[in-house]
Amino acid sequence: MIRVGILGATGYTALELIKLLLRHPEVEITVATSRQEGNPHIAAVHPSLAGRLDLRLEDLGPVAVASRAQCIFSCLPHCASATVAPQLLAAGARVIDFSADYRLDDAETYATWYNEKHPDAERLGKVVYGLPELFGEQIPDAQLVANPGCYPTSAILALAPFLKQGLVDPSTLIIDAKSGVSGAGRTPKLTTLYPECNESVSAYSVGRHRHTPEIEQILGRATGQKVNIIFTPHLMPMDRGILSTIYASPTRELQENELLPVLREFYQDEPFVRIVEHLPASKDVSGTNFCDITARLVRGKLVLISCVDNLIKGASGAAVQNFNLMYGFPETTALY
Amino acid sequence: MIRVGILGATGYTALELIKLLLRHPEVEITVATSRQEGNPHIAAVHPSLAGRLDLRLEDLGPVAVASRAQCIFSCLPHCASATVAPQLLAAGARVIDFSADYRLDDAETYATWYNEKHPDAERLGKVVYGLPELFGEQIPDAQLVANPGCYPTSAILALAPFLKQGLVDPSTLIIDAKSGVSGAGRTPKLTTLYPECNESVSAYSVGRHRHTPEIEQILGRATGQKVNIIFTPHLMPMDRGILSTIYASPTRELQENELLPVLREFYQDEPFVRIVEHLPASKDVSGTNFCDITARLVRGKLVLISCVDNLIKGASGAAVQNFNLMYGFPETTALY
Amino acid sequence: MIRVGILGATGYTALELIKLLLRHPEVEITVATSRQEGNPHIAAVHPSLAGRLDLRLEDLGPVAVASRAQCIFSCLPHCASATVAPQLLAAGARVIDFSADYRLDDAETYATWYNEKHPDAERLGKVVYGLPELFGEQIPDAQLVANPGCYPTSAILALAPFLKQGLVDPSTLIIDAKSGVSGAGRTPKLTTLYPECNESVSAYSVGRHRHTPEIEQILGRATGQKVNIIFTPHLMPMDRGILSTIYASPTRELQENELLPVLREFYQDEPFVRIVEHLPASKDVSGTNFCDITARLVRGKLVLISCVDNLIKGASGAAVQNFNLMYGFPETTALY
Amino acid sequence: MIRVGILGATGYTALELIKLLLRHPEVEITVATSRQEGNPHIAAVHPSLAGRLDLRLEDLGPVAVASRAQCIFSCLPHCASATVAPQLLAAGARVIDFSADYRLDDAETYATWYNEKHPDAERLGKVVYGLPELFGEQIPDAQLVANPGCYPTSAILALAPFLKQGLVDPSTLIIDAKSGVSGAGRTPKLTTLYPECNESVSAYSVGRHRHTPEIEQILGRATGQKVNIIFTPHLMPMDRGILSTIYASPTRELQENELLPVLREFYQDEPFVRIVEHLPASKDVSGTNFCDITARLVRGKLVLISCVDNLIKGASGAAVQNFNLMYGFPETTALY
Question: Is A279 an 8 Å CB contact of chain C?
């Protein structure tokens, strides 16, 4: 039984994480933190957990948390996460970080896109990126895992096989991604108020979304190529789900029937990537840790469609998958 | 051409009001206020008004506003509205107040339900309630009109005909109402964040909603009976629309075929109340100033279904209807 | 390992059932039927099952199905289910029936509300109603279980404790229920087309919904009283979830603080009924087998709020719960 | 007063058309057709029209319709429309055709994409395409107007100014479009059933959508260039609205501040195209005849965002705009 702790347990990813961990036969949630006053019961913050988990949220520092848990899932915002992670690691805990703090290769890129000096810069470039389908070998021994972003998961999984085989030009990639609103977090904001985003679709952060360098660097790391993307995220009127439509120029003339075999071969041993012939809907993977991918050739161009549940495979499910690999449990435990 | 002003122009009812007024051939919007800094252009706050209205929101006091407009629509919150209304009236403006401040009969009830000392208590009990279908004769000469609440509009219009004829027991009324989220306003709150209320329905303020005394007092005023209701509002995952399902015990045995005639006769000259045979959906009246009502007899009990668009007939459409009556324009101007 | 079969596997309840059964360590799904031509793969009908279950839908008769499975979940429509159930039982299979065919006490009531002659009338009145919280003792030995309706589950669980204690008048009950659209099934119809029911709420089948006699008879069976209800179902713009708002007249003056204890005591040993202090939202139980209930006293009247996921506790979760009891597995297996 | 008729009046575009025409001071709707039996009242088919229009739907042939109306709006499906249009025109009526039948240049392309022999092939290539912003001069004298498709409207309006100035390479265009479900029509289908498309986003008809040749040919007609697009439509969980995100390679290095001026100059006299600096949401134009467009430069590539209400500017609003031009009314009549 592994004792686990959760930092920043009031948001949507933390809620999904707890629901998954409650199904895990080898996990005991021993501590959860929040800065909310009065140590509220977890069920006061997440009514759906009533009767499921008897735990109060506490405003604790990293040392106290590490004394109560072996593995810490940090759902803190960027910058906050990398401020406490060193202390958690120093105290002997293993850390799965949901923030973007340890996903990038270097502090300069971080500063450029996050407008912050990185609090733990020397560790950058050495942290395992927790996408088991690409970096699975590095995860079992990791003390610290950077849990992937939701958009990057859907985009990287679709593109990596083609890039690795040199079948697409890495300088031409267009990722048009559509996400449910839960991806924007649980802090009340005008932009995610119900009547603002219901019955509406809009692009946001065009050319400036922070997942841009993550996708580029990780695809580079995985495939050894310099990757350049145009990434356009959109907000959809739905709770959860991401569908990425990806356009890439082939490096040679491709036939449509070559496409799915490339994907199938790459992911043949992966339990959570499904290569499908039909055009997948984000609902097909809703509530699951699956990534469904298909490919089409349209007028000579490669069109990839990839979808995940942003809260599961795009966050908490991936975290549990990483946890399973870190502790030697079957990869699908609590995820099927 | 009537010069009109709008106080508190950043919310959803103000937006709908402006859209309606832009269709009104006899209206010029000359001033709109907000406490937002920097006098933002109205289209910066409401992008759907781009190119439609060239106006900046100003942080102005009542005297300044009254100097620029003949008729003021106040979309201020309760208490704030009754603080400025006396000055607007004193300056010679006519006022249509969207808040609850002038809807109730007395300051005691106001204090009980709104937890505030009424800022203009002596006027209570003398203000016209702007439901033209019941108080239409009083509106043309009114200086100040209390624009009805959204839930009250749907409930009162359905019940008044039966109460007035003494066909239902006024002590037994149950109003189970369902509303879209725009009714909760445009201020970011956790409860109206998209992922909180999407894919969910919940009751709120059970037994304590502030529209309770409004429905009771206005039905009393209109029908001369002491009315007692159980009112249960619910939040629905939709932008706009209210559907009230109302249960009442008849005072004598009724036949189902008596029901619609009672309603039809009562509203025969009203352009915005539609008595329908089918079970109306809130969508049937979405974007319109209509109230659709039907009636059924279920095991001896009267069941009324009544729906309005909370932002139109439940707020801004009613305000324009009142405006038309106040200024002698055809009642349906800008509303059909 | 129990071999189970599913009749009528193309709908939403069958899909949810399969997802739950795939988590059950003691279940093997060996057969699933449909009248679709060409024996389509289950994943062609339910894309979310891709890679999860390698099974084709077959157009099989009851004898063939019973030869391959020990326990049959029938998701057939009413009348169809009671046509095949006798043969399944005769062949030695145990049957959990999702249809309404075996829920009522007598064939006359069935004929009145379902407009059909009951195909297996002599069995009526002797079949266990599969609501474990009320009839749990009868389930372990049952060959045939009538799986409860979705609306009845939410209503009966809230009302039974008060009726059993004689605290409410059984002749005055009003059940105003709100359901997501999945409750209307997967057959394309104008009324459940997306643009018809999105952004809309409407009542339907007012006074004529078929769950009316089910609620009355089962509450009667459970509490020994003659129960009379007014039941008004509403269609909400959401996939899943039912919230029932219930109004009942007490038989004596009640205090609000008496209410929750009545519920808590009644359900103290039940793993899937949560008595909560807050007003529950249907989302709190979405995707779960929980029924969340609270109670309020409003102007002397009892107001109960009860919610379930119509596809889980209102259908497939309840079926698995019944299955667990029938085969001696822990009640919560595959449901937590 | 122009007498107008509507063919195929049961769908969503016909409903929106009627609502707009009811606001038009110079229009009388004299006839509406449908193949539904029994000549249902229009309000039985569209409950939102109760009390607004007293008309029955009739199953009439083109000659009968032309005898009662001067201008016919055909909301018939493709192929059906071009079957009756010749007779309507021969009878002296003017026709605004909502179908795709007269939008393409040639019968071969029609046969390829619509799998039908064109019923009125000789007229192809000579019919005015009713996009007033590009072909406004041809509309006043037209007997027959091909009303544009919804996706084409959003895409063509955004791209035409840049193509016409030779600023983008016409062989590189990617149009990633997102549409509400009403675009799929009102005929019940599994794919547009509420629980199928709610809480989900999916691409459909990738590389094979019939609006592909329409966009290419019309952009070619308007700009004199051979245009080649990759068009990927997506279904969004919302009623109405289209947002197109368009990617194009510039023919020379562009600066971001050059982009909006190109659009503004092109549309400076157009009442229904709004060039905006912010990223528009589909909701900004919902219920209106506006097309909101903005432009960004992302890593050297032009990214255009364009949105319309698919039922208004993408269908019925455009039709009324065409009608206004055909009959010499102010272009914005009934549309502001």
Answer: no
